[in-house]
Protein backbone atom coordinates (compact mmCIF):
# COMPACT_ATOMS: atom_id res chain seq x y z
CA UNK A 1 0.00 0.00 0.00
CA UNK A 2 1.48 3.39 -0.95
CA UNK A 3 1.99 5.99 1.78
CA UNK A 4 -0.86 8.39 2.50
CA UNK A 5 -0.58 11.62 0.44
CA UNK A 6 -0.72 13.74 3.62
CA UNK A 7 2.22 11.78 5.03
CA UNK A 8 4.14 12.32 1.81
CA UNK A 9 3.40 16.08 1.97
CA UNK A 10 4.46 16.26 5.63
CA UNK A 11 7.69 14.37 4.92
CA UNK A 12 8.52 16.56 1.91
CA UNK A 13 7.98 19.72 3.95
CA UNK A 14 10.10 18.40 6.81
CA UNK A 15 12.90 17.52 4.38
CA UNK A 16 12.75 21.01 2.86
CA UNK A 17 13.12 22.53 6.34
CA UNK A 18 16.14 20.32 7.08
CA UNK A 19 17.71 21.15 3.71
CA UNK A 20 17.49 24.84 4.57
CA UNK A 21 19.11 24.21 7.96
CA UNK A 22 21.83 22.10 6.32
CA UNK A 23 22.57 24.93 3.88
CA UNK A 24 22.80 27.48 6.70
CA UNK A 25 25.32 25.31 8.56
CA UNK A 26 27.30 24.87 5.34
CA UNK A 27 27.32 28.66 4.87
CA UNK A 28 28.64 29.19 8.40
CA UNK A 29 31.05 26.30 8.87
CA UNK A 30 31.28 24.28 5.64
CA UNK A 31 35.04 24.81 5.51
CA UNK A 32 35.69 24.29 9.24
CA UNK A 33 36.92 20.71 8.74
CA UNK A 34 38.29 18.96 5.64
CA UNK A 35 35.64 17.08 3.72
CA UNK A 36 35.75 13.26 3.79
CA UNK A 37 37.49 12.14 0.56
CA UNK A 38 34.48 10.02 -0.46
CA UNK A 39 31.95 12.78 0.21
CA UNK A 40 30.82 14.93 -2.76
CA UNK A 41 31.50 18.66 -2.46
CA UNK A 42 28.62 20.93 -1.49
CA UNK A 43 26.08 21.28 -4.29
CA UNK A 44 27.29 18.21 -6.20
CA UNK A 45 23.98 16.42 -5.56
CA UNK A 46 20.39 17.65 -5.44
CA UNK A 47 20.16 16.71 -1.76
CA UNK A 48 22.17 18.68 0.84
CA UNK A 49 22.15 15.64 3.13
CA UNK A 50 24.33 13.81 0.61
CA UNK A 51 27.04 16.37 -0.03
CA UNK A 52 29.10 18.97 1.78
CA UNK A 53 30.41 18.80 5.31
CA UNK A 54 27.08 18.44 7.11
CA UNK A 55 24.27 15.94 7.07
CA UNK A 56 21.33 17.37 8.98
CA UNK A 57 18.35 15.03 8.84
CA UNK A 58 15.19 14.07 10.72
CA UNK A 59 15.15 10.54 12.11
CA UNK A 60 11.74 9.32 13.27
CA UNK A 61 11.63 7.56 16.62
CA UNK A 62 8.68 5.85 18.27
CA UNK A 63 10.03 7.24 21.53
CA UNK A 64 9.93 4.11 23.64
CA UNK A 65 11.65 4.93 26.91
CA UNK A 66 11.47 8.69 26.32
CA UNK A 67 9.37 11.03 28.43
CA UNK A 68 8.59 12.94 25.20
CA UNK A 69 7.36 9.93 23.23
CA UNK A 70 7.46 9.81 19.47
CA UNK A 71 9.05 12.47 17.34
CA UNK A 72 11.86 13.26 14.95
CA UNK A 73 15.40 13.30 16.26
CA UNK A 74 17.57 16.03 14.79
CA UNK A 75 20.51 14.10 13.41
CA UNK A 76 23.70 16.10 12.90
CA UNK A 77 26.66 14.39 11.25
CA UNK A 78 29.95 15.85 10.07
CA UNK A 79 31.52 14.21 7.00
CA UNK A 80 35.22 14.37 7.77
CA UNK A 81 38.01 11.99 8.69
CA UNK A 82 39.27 14.52 11.25
CA UNK A 83 38.22 14.08 14.88
CA UNK A 84 35.57 16.71 15.58
CA UNK A 85 36.04 18.04 19.13
CA UNK A 86 32.99 17.62 21.38
CA UNK A 87 32.60 21.39 21.76
CA UNK A 88 32.27 21.78 17.99
CA UNK A 89 29.72 18.95 17.80
CA UNK A 90 27.78 20.68 20.57
CA UNK A 91 27.87 23.97 18.64
CA UNK A 92 26.75 22.31 15.41
CA UNK A 93 23.97 20.31 17.07
CA UNK A 94 22.64 23.16 19.19
CA UNK A 95 22.70 25.53 16.22
CA UNK A 96 20.86 23.01 14.04
CA UNK A 97 18.24 22.51 16.77
CA UNK A 98 17.76 26.28 17.20
CA UNK A 99 17.41 26.77 13.44
CA UNK A 100 14.85 23.95 13.22
CA UNK A 101 12.89 25.49 16.09
CA UNK A 102 12.91 28.90 14.37
CA UNK A 103 11.66 27.44 11.09
CA UNK A 104 8.98 25.04 12.35
CA UNK A 105 6.26 27.71 12.45
CA UNK A 106 7.18 28.86 8.93
CA UNK A 107 7.10 25.39 7.38
CA UNK A 108 4.24 24.08 9.54
CA UNK A 109 2.09 27.11 10.43
CA UNK A 110 -1.00 24.98 11.20
CA UNK A 111 0.78 22.60 13.60
CA UNK A 112 1.99 22.88 17.16
CA UNK A 113 5.53 21.53 16.95
CA UNK A 114 8.55 22.27 19.10
CA UNK A 115 12.13 21.19 19.63
CA UNK A 116 13.03 19.70 23.01
CA UNK A 117 16.16 18.14 24.45
CA UNK A 118 15.71 14.40 24.86
CA UNK A 119 18.74 13.01 26.64
CA UNK A 120 21.77 13.98 24.58
CA UNK A 121 19.67 14.60 21.48
CA UNK A 122 17.18 17.17 20.26
CA UNK A 123 13.77 16.04 19.11
CA UNK A 124 10.81 17.58 17.31
CA UNK A 125 7.60 16.75 19.16
CA UNK A 126 3.99 17.78 18.81
CA UNK A 127 1.11 17.39 16.36
CA UNK A 128 2.03 14.81 13.72
CA UNK A 129 -1.61 13.94 12.93
CA UNK A 130 -2.65 13.60 9.32
CA UNK A 131 -6.19 14.83 9.91
CA UNK A 132 -9.21 13.23 8.27
CA UNK A 133 -8.32 10.48 5.82
E-strand count: 4
Series of secondary-structure elements, N-terminal to C-terminal = HEEHEE
**DSSP strand content:** 15-25%
Gyration radius from CA atoms, angstroms: 16 Å
Give the fraction of residues assigned to helices.
Answer: 25-40%
Q: Biggest sheet: strands side by side, in what order?
A: 1-2-4-3
Query: What is the terminal separation in angstroms?
Result: 15 Å
What structural class do the secondary elements suggest?
A: alpha+beta
Domain count: the total is: 1
Low-confidence stretches: none
Mean of residue pLDDT values: 95
Q: How would a textbook summarize the main sheet?
A: 4 strands, antiparallel
Shape descriptor: globular
The count of helical stretches stands at 2
What does this 3D model show about the protein?
- The chain is α+β, with helices and mostly antiparallel strands.
- It has one domain.
- It is built from 2 helices and 4 strands.
- It has helices spanning 5-29, 86-107; strands spanning 54-61, 71-78, 113-118, 121-126.
- Helix 1 crosses helix 2 (86-107).
- The chain is globular.
- 20% of the residues are buried.
Question: How would you summarize this macromolecular structure in one to three sentences?
Answer:
A 4-stranded antiparallel beta sheet has the order 1-2-4-3, covered by helices on one side.
Amino acid sequence: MPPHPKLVAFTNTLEALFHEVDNELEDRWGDRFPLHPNRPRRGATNNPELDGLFEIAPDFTAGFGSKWGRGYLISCRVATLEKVPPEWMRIFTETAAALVQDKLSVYFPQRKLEVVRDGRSFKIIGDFSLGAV
